[in-house]
Amino acid sequence: SILMERRLFLYNFRNLRKAKGRRETYLCYVVKRRDSATSCSLDFGYLRNQMGCHVEVLFLRYIAAWDLDPGRCYRITWFTSWSPCYDCAQHIANFLRSYPNLTLRIFMARLYFCEDRKAEPEGLRRLHKAGAQIAIMTFKDFFYCWNTFVENREQTFKGWEGLHENSVHLARKLRRILLPLYEVDDLRDAFKILGL
């Protein structure tokens, strides 16, 4: 099936603040071609990590094999269970530089941080600088994924407890990561002056 099982989606995409035991990354994708004012869907589906290869790299290999027409514009939308690690963010940024006719939007259920807690934020900043639009998934995004990528047997998506609060918390965290460093320093100085 090209659709994900309900239990896999609900387990892997749950936006918990501490998601112990969730080691795999799932990536749901939609590829569209822009033709003037309209767009045409070319493909959709989902992938997961395979034998030591991260899902982001698998997708980049998959799309590179398409031999995209450089004269046309393409938009790819990802919904991922984890944000990319530093190395994957670098691969994605390089890929985007190689394909200026392609835009990428990434909606993430959770933020991934490895032992070196500085690497992943730097990777996300580089990815953002390379033109990727990155955001945390909201109820609307989970609802869309449920109806597009999940074998839901026509059951309505019901959010879990804490979905909205965790989305807001993670979105704030991502916003702090993406703030230009000089703005972060300015904020720290302002808080010091205010005694906060």
TrEMBL record:
Cofactor dependence: Zn(2+)
Residue ranges of domain CMP/dCMP-type deaminase in the record: 21-127
Broad class of enzyme this protein falls into: hydrolase
GO biological process, one term: DNA cytosine deamination
GO CC field: nucleus; P-body
Name of the protein described by the UniProt record: Single-stranded DNA cytosine deaminase
Upper lineage: Eukaryota, Metazoa, Chordata, Craniata, Vertebrata
Tree of life domain: Eukaryota
Family matches, as InterPro entries: APOBEC/CMP_deaminase_Zn-bd (IPR016192), APOBEC_Cyt_Deaminase (IPR050610), CMP_dCMP_dom (IPR002125), Cytidine_deaminase-like (IPR016193)
Gene that produces this protein: Aicda
Known catalytic reactions: a 2'-deoxycytidine in single-stranded DNA + H2O + H(+) = a 2'-deoxyuridine in single-stranded DNA + NH4(+)
Entry function: Single-stranded DNA-specific cytidine deaminase. Involved in somatic hypermutation (SHM), gene conversion, and class-switch recombination (CSR) in B-lymphocytes by deaminating C to U during transcription of Ig-variable (V) and Ig-switch (S) region DNA. Required for several crucial steps of B-cell terminal differentiation necessary for efficient antibody responses. May also play a role in the epigenetic regulation of gene expression by participating in DNA demethylation.
Source organism per UniProt: Leiothrix lutea (Red-billed leiothrix)
Signal sequence extent: none
EC number: 3.5.4.38
Subcellular location: Cytoplasm; Nucleus
Keywords: Cytoplasm, Hydrolase, Metal-binding, mRNA processing, Nucleus, Phosphoprotein, Ubl conjugation, Zinc
Family: Belongs to the cytidine and deoxycytidylate deaminase family.
Molecular function terms from GO: cytidine deaminase activity; RNA binding; zinc ion binding
Annotated PANTHER family: MRNA EDITING ENZYME, SINGLE-STRANDED DNA CYTOSINE DEAMINASE
